[in-house]
Write a structure and sequence with these properties.
With about 325 residues, the chain is α/β, with parallel strands linked by helices. Helices cover about 45% and strands about 15% of the residues. It has 13 helices and 9 strands. It has helices at about 5-10, 25-45, 70-80, 90-95, 100-110, 125-130, 145-160, 180-190, 220-225, 245-255, 260, 285-290, 295-329; strands spanning about 55-60, 85-90, 115-120, 135-140, 170, 195-200, 215, 230, 270. The protein has a 5-stranded parallel β-sheet. Strands 2-1-3-4 form a 4-stranded parallel β-sheet. The chain starts with a helix and ends with a helix. The structure holds N-carbamoyl-L-aspartate (NCD).
Amino acid sequence: MTSAQRATATGGYHHRHLLGIEGLTAPEILFLLDLSDSYVDVNRATDKKRDLLFGRTVINLFFENSTRTRTSFELAAKRLGADVINMSIAWSSIKKGETLIDTAMTLNAMHPDVLVVRHPDSGAVQLLSEKVNCAVINGGDGSHEHPTQALLDAMTIRRRLGRLEGLQVAICGDITHSRVARSNIHLLTTLGARVRLIAPPTLMPSKVERMGVETFHDMRKGLEGCDIVMMLRLQTERMQGSYVPSTREYYRFFGLDQDKLQAAKPNALIMHPGPMNRGVEIDSDLADDINRSVIREQVEMGVAVRMACLDTLNRNLMAERLAEGQAAQ
Ligand code: NCD
């Protein structure tokens, strides 16, 4: 039986790592979402400390800047009782010195239990996971995947609207460079939501319709009848050359403002993974509109999702080590 079949049969998530949403089954995703739900209450309580990860070491290995993802993983691991080390490595220094694999091997020798890795190259986190003995969580690799972001987005939607199935979700902006878009497309289509992508032709990946989505180059047409409007940042750090004429012109055609939002359902929710560029992809007042924007809830859900992922991978790792120990006897 493959691990995916086992998850379907028994309920649960039985992989050693969390590298991406692609390939996960609906029951596996739902298991992580349900467990995350239970952690929301833990995070709202005065006493947030648990000891499920007591004695475990979590290393946050970030080769790219991050504010919310790194802090959120750190908080999640500490609330579960783990020892946490944060390593921020400038990509320039890693290029000069050790390779990614050397760094991984060095850290592996210190016997961590979970490595949370963010890296500017797509596929780098998967490569690293093949070289270490611990569990690995992808905190974002290039423009490939950002699984915990998609999980927290799904949780935010599900808690607000009660379901994902049948919802119409628009993901708008720089799709080409966005790992958030890719992970969300996999998750939302697996759980039965319909996904539309809205972007200028230069920021829309070719043949993306193969992922089961509809594409639009006009905000009003694409937003028509949508339940969710998810905005993305122009990821200039991943662009070589110019993809948009100017940020002013981009805002005029693709920035979310009151006028364009009229095309969506009257109570459509606005989402953004952050960091936001106010006045570039989103109007500043809309971003702060407590009746429409769930951007702050997304950040809150992030901690709960990361606790659920750390909890799950730790359990799997302990079960694996126990089985290895028994086999050796
Ligand atoms: C996203 C990322 O890093 O991929 N942000 C995040 O994780 N909160 C999106 C972005 O950087 O635009």
